[in-house]
Amino acid sequence: GAGVSQSPSNKVTEKGKDVELRCDPISGHTALYWYRQSLGQGLEFLIYFQGNSAPDKSGLPSDRFSAERTGGSVSTLTIQRTQQEDSAVYLCASSEPAGTNSYEQYFGPGTRLTVT
Amino acid sequence: QQQVKQSPQSLIVQKGGISIINCAYENTAFDYFPWYQQFPGKGPALLIAIRPDVSEKKEGRFTISFNKSAKQFSLHIMDSQPGDSATYFCAASIVFYTGNQFYFGTGTSLTVIP
Questions:
Q1: Helix (H, G, I), strand (E, B) or coil at A85
Q2: Which residues are paired to B101 by β-bridges?
Q3: What is the rounded CA–CA span in Å between residue A52 and residue A44?
């Protein structure tokens, strides 16, 4: 399929462990976003990558959270020393290059993270 | 600081009725206002979107009404169906030269009763 894919779909981890969440954006999409969605809540912006520009990390809640995007495509969100409050669905989205007429974000199915 | 405020938090509508969800924003630099629909276990999907140069956009049973002076926009779902039961998010975007940044409302859980 040509959509945004995320892995794993579910992740259960013990408090204090590190986790890595992966996002494969739609081919050709230069913008990539990470959001966090807690149970019954809206989408909380975490980080935004656009091409080769420095990422906008303004939404990362603490220094335990980091993300990278290799080769302008796949992105990995890393949460170190996980806490129970990190339990949420982590959503990735991608969109076409800036300057195009399409502002649409395409979302992946998300990774449900549970910290026990 | 919530850039986009959405209401109501939940909504129950009879089949065939009209569902109305409202959003308000403060930043006049926003230039793109999408609505997303999210079913349980799925990521949000774009439903309909509007630019600030028009006051209304209709696609099938879904209509966005946009009031630039009041800095408000709303989603109307006509002839609501049980299959419309989902969570709806409004959003607003500012297009920077490097791309878009999106701000989301807190979501509305819609239940359409058969």
A1: helix
A2: B94
A3: 23
Predicted confidence (pLDDT) at residue B56 exceeds the cutoff of 60: yes
Integer-rounded Cα radius of gyration of chain A: 14
**Tens-digit pLDDT profile for residues A53-110:** 888 898 899 999 999 998 878 999 999 999 999 999 999 999 887 666 567 889 999 9
Nearest CA in chain A to B98: A98
Instruction: Tally the domains of chain B.
Output: 1
Rounded CA separation A94/B28 (Å): 25
The confidence score (pLDDT) of residue B72 equals: 97
Shortest Cα distance, chain B CAs vs residue A97, angstroms: 7
Predicted confidence band of residue B2 (pLDDT cuts 50, 70, 90): confident
Domain extent for B58: 4-113
What distance in Å separates the CA atoms of residue B7 and residue B40, rounded to the nearest whole number? Answer: 20
Residues B78, B63: Cα–Cα separation, whole Å = 8
Q: Which of A112, A115, A105, A110 is nearest to A26 (CA)?
A: A105
Amino acid residing at A110 = G
CATH 3.40.50.1110 holds for A5-97 = no
In chain A, where the domains are located? 5-97
CB-based contact A43 B41, cutoff 8 Å: no
Interface contact A31-B100, CB threshold 8 A: yes
Q: Which residues of B touch A39 (CB under 8 A)?
A: none
Query: Six-digit token pair at B69?
Result: 């002076």
Give the C-alpha distances (Å, rounded to integers) separating B20 from A103, B34, B43, B61, B110: 24, 15, 22, 12, 10
